[in-house]
Amino acid sequence: MLIDYKKVNICQQNDKLVLKDVDFHVDEGEFIYIIGRVGSGKSTLLKTLYFELDIEDAEKAVVLNHNILKLKRKYIPALRRQMGIIFQDFQLLSDRTVYHNLRFVLKATGWKNKKEIEQRIDEVLSDVDMTDKRDSYPHELSGGEQQRIAIARAILNKPDLIIADEPTGNLDPETAEGIVSLLREIAQTGTAVIMSTHNLPLLSKYPGIVYRCADQHIEEVTETYNQLMDEGLDTAEEREKEMLANRPDADYSTREDLSV
Predict the structure, then answer these.
(1) What is the pLDDT of residue 13?
(2) Distance set, CA 20 to CA 9, 12, 211, 215, 243 (Å)
(3) In the predicted model, what is the mean pLDDT of the chain?
(4) Whole-angstrom Cα distance, residue 165 to residue 17?
(5) Phi-psi domain of 141 (left: phi exceeds 0; alpha: psi -120 through 50; beta: other)
(6) For residue 86, what is the DSSP state?
(7) CA 178-2-23 angle, 5° bins
(8) Helix axes 98-108, 143-154, angle to 10 degrees
(9) 130-152 pLDDT, tens digit each
(10) DSSP assignment, residue 78?
(11) 199-232: per-residue pLDDT in tens?
(12) Which residues of the chain fall below pLDDT 50?
């Protein structure tokens, strides 16, 4: 299991409680959505997974086989190299080409052999269908193209886990579909993907395990959400209202493998 949270309390840096009694689990190759309204704790949860925010109170908090309650700061860089992180605003270096953005990450994470660096950059650009943009600068790319480069950057070190915080938030619907489809393909290679999103219609087209943040709690609502989609509710707002009104009591500890 890549992530195993049990009875975790998550606070912001000002000690304000955001989520309590969090049970959250991620296995290899799973594709997981985290949904919920703005301010419900989605991004705060993700920050604990990539060590931007510490956890002080938990029965169990394991990320990539490490107990993060006792994790020393000096080990965090090595653990981060086992994961890829994708943000809504891309966070590419504006003064460097696509190639040099990717090269910078590889060199920063210990790659030294020039031939191997060249080969890996070519591989990831091919994976995201952006080979022809190798020498372009970020400002010369569309939003969707920049996000594809951000995904290429995230998979450079062949991570066990990708964390994507609203990766489609700045994209049009068609481009957003392409990004989620690409992330699904990555999950099918065995890399787990955790994606927070407001774009609920994507969940029916690209199924995954669904967690919802609300009222300082997070719960798995995969079955409930699928039932709502089958009933044909027309808008994301209606789906969210329906889920808020019908919080499930079912036990989701055994769940269908949705990684393929």
Answers:
(1) 83
(2) 4, 12, 14, 9, 19
(3) 88
(4) 20
(5) beta
(6) E
(7) 95
(8) 20
(9) 999 999 999 999 999 999 999 99
(10) H
(11) 888 888 899 999 999 999 999 999 887 666 666 5
(12) 233-236, 247-260
**143-154 and 114-127 helices cross at what angle (nearest 10)?**
130
pLDDT (0 to 100) of residue 53: 94
pLDDT at residue 32 in the model: 97
Q: Residue-wise over 64-77: b if at least 16 C-beta within 10 A, else e? A: bebebeebeeeeee
| Of 150, 152, 160, nearest in space to 192 by CA | 160
- The two three-digit tokens of residue 156, written as one number: 């450079």
How much is the pTM?
Answer: 0.86
- DSSP of 89-157: T----TTS-HHHHHHHHHHHTT---HHHHHHHHHHHHHHTT-GGGTT--GGGS-HHHHHHHHHHHHTTT
Q: Which amino acid is at 102?
A: L
Considering only CA atoms, give the Rg of the chain. 18
Give every CB contact of residue 153 below 8 A, 6+ residues apart in sequence: 84, 92, 101, 102, 105, 124
175: phi then psi, degrees, rounded to nearest 5: -65, -40
pLDDT for 200 equals 84
Which two tokens mark 228?
Answer: 């709502």
- Report the distance separating Cα 3 and Cα 220, nearest Å: 15
CA-to-CA distance for 48 and 61, rounded, in angstroms?
A: 10
Residue with tokens 């969210």: 240
Q: Which residues pair with 10 in a beta bridge?
A: 19
CA–centroid distance for 71 within its chain: 22
DSSP element (H, E) containing 163 = strand 161-165
Token reading at 40: 């419900």
